[in-house]
Amino acid sequence: MSILAAGVGFAIRGGILDNWSREFNFTGAELGEIGGGGLTGFCFGIIIGGVLADKIGYGKLIVAAFAFHILSAVTTLYPSVGMESASVYQYLFWGTFMFAVANGLLEAAANPLVATLFPEKRTHYLNLLHASWPAGMIIGAAAGWILDDRLEWSWKPQLALFIIPTIAYGLMFLGQAMPKSAASKSGLSLAEMFKDVGILGSLIVCYFLSLFFADLFVPLLTTDGATTEQIAAAGQQASMIGYGIAGVLLITVAVITQFSLGAWLLFVLFIAHALVGAVELGTDNWIQNITGNILSSQQGRFLFIWTSTLMFLLRFCSDWIERTLKLSPPGILLVCSILACLGLYLASGVTTFTGALLALTVYAVGKTFFWPTMLAVASDRFPKTGAVAISIMGGIGLLSAGLVGSKGLGYAKDRFAGEALQQASAEVYEEYKAAKPSEFTFAKPSFGIDGQKLGMIQEKLSAISQDVTAAPLTDTEKMVHLASIDGDRKTLRADAFIPAMMAVIYLLIVLYFKSIGGYRRVELDGSDGGG
To answer: What is the pLDDT of residue 181?
Structure first.
């Protein structure tokens, strides 16, 4: 129920991005940053929660998560029409950030809890646990479809729906007794739990934290009316602050673990999970918007519900897949990455609903088992880490989803759409380009299409689909709309490179286990278990 609440909020937020764009005139990159806040905050919840879980117990994490969920609702629902865009951005960003912190705290409790309860079938039961994530997305997307597209409700009552399952899990957790992990029962210290993570594993999470803190400090170092040069200088200062904070954290881990390098396999798994976060959650944050633009808003919502339904059902089949197809967890991950790459590439070229249904079905099957199976592999191979390794892994995935996946796809949409419109007509591009450029890491700043102007065209298209007597689009409006579609297609093709890289990593992991006699679960005493 707690993870279902997270899925409901995530799906509804993905469906109201166009509402925020029209109402507050946000660029695609700004929407990506807000959506990214709803992912990066997860990192702080799950990493801090994972470090504390074995020491303070799971119950206290649940209480903190419930409080953050309620506070996030109050903050996110506060903005109103007429407020300054910059103020609205801050409320929406921090509201979604706190929502993600709550989700992270919940998973910091739920993942090690399930891994502890079912040590011999972790892949199966972690997939069952995470079936509630797509279940929440189905409910959220279906509610958005009815309330937004059909009843035309405001975005606020739609987003507030996640409060219902939040109240439910809060009541359900009252009075529950929580077991301890094997690492906690063995009396392992925090330093011993961190040794397999070590410097190498910490390097990955510290890098993403440096990016997060850099983004956090940019607005604090920028004054109103700042010039382009001043903004660039503030960005450099913020980056240095981010690297400094990350460096202190890395040194702290090194000292605590007596300068242990960590396990190289866990380091590779962390890299792979960063890619998982970018392609799974980063794509999910935008897929309704992209497919809705290429086809129609209602078809985009239906496709999102369809892929989420497939994820929900297939996650009940992980044990059957392992036994029947004789695939080890790394083998499942390899096959899934190939399917995800193929599905995204096919989706970039769709022109009909049937074609989109086929392409996104392939993509959905591919992405289904990524997240829980990765957690199972880390738990199987590194039991001494307790809740630490899988919590850090989850944090890396969410940081990547927010800082690379969601934000990067938002930038790609802006850049590719702007370039397509500029190539079609420089004059029209100057009329319709966004007031602010979109930026992403080391990529060049690029102007996308103005969110409010594009939203007006999309509303006109929606009116035409419902009333044949409605005024048709002008040639200029058609040009802008086609440029936005072209940008979305190129964004999906660029996104397909991520699971392609994952396939290479998983292939190497499969070959490694084959060279040592096959995949085995490691017991806490260091011996290989069965399975």
So the answer is: 62
- At residue 81, what are phi and psi to the nearest 5 degrees? -60, 135
Residues 222 and 312 in one domain: no
pTM above 0.85, yes or no: no
Residue 292 near residue 483 (C-beta atoms within 8 A): no
What average pLDDT score do residues 167-186 get? 78
For the segment 193-215, the average pLDDT, to the nearest whole number, is: 88
Beta-carbon contacts of 514 under 8 Å, excluding residues fewer than 6 positions away, are none
- Secondary structure E strands in 172-294: none
Range of the structural domain that residue 252 is part of: 198-262
Helix, strand, coil percentages, rounded to 5, for the chain: 80, 0, 20
433, β-bridge pairs: 449
Last residue of a domain, one of 246, 262, 278: 262
pLDDT-derived band at 184 (thresholds 50, 70, 90) equals low
Is the same domain home to 237 and 352? no
Asked if 158 contacts 12 with a C-beta cutoff of 8 angstroms, the reply is yes
Q: Tokens 């409700």 belong to which residue?
A: 153
H helices of 257-352, where?
264-294, 297-314, 318-324, 329-347
- Quickly list DSSP for 232-248: HHHHHHHHHHHHHHHHH
pLDDT in tens, 367-400: 999 988 998 899 889 888 877 888 888 888 888 8
Percent of the chain with pLDDT over 90: 27
Judge whether 384 and 190 are in contact, CB under 8 Å: no
The answer to the question of residue 143 being in a domain is: yes
- On average, the pLDDT of the chain sits at 85
Tokens of 298: 């209602």
Residues 218, 235: Cα–Cα separation, whole Å: 6
In a domain, 525, yes or no: no
> Facing residues of 438 across strands?
446
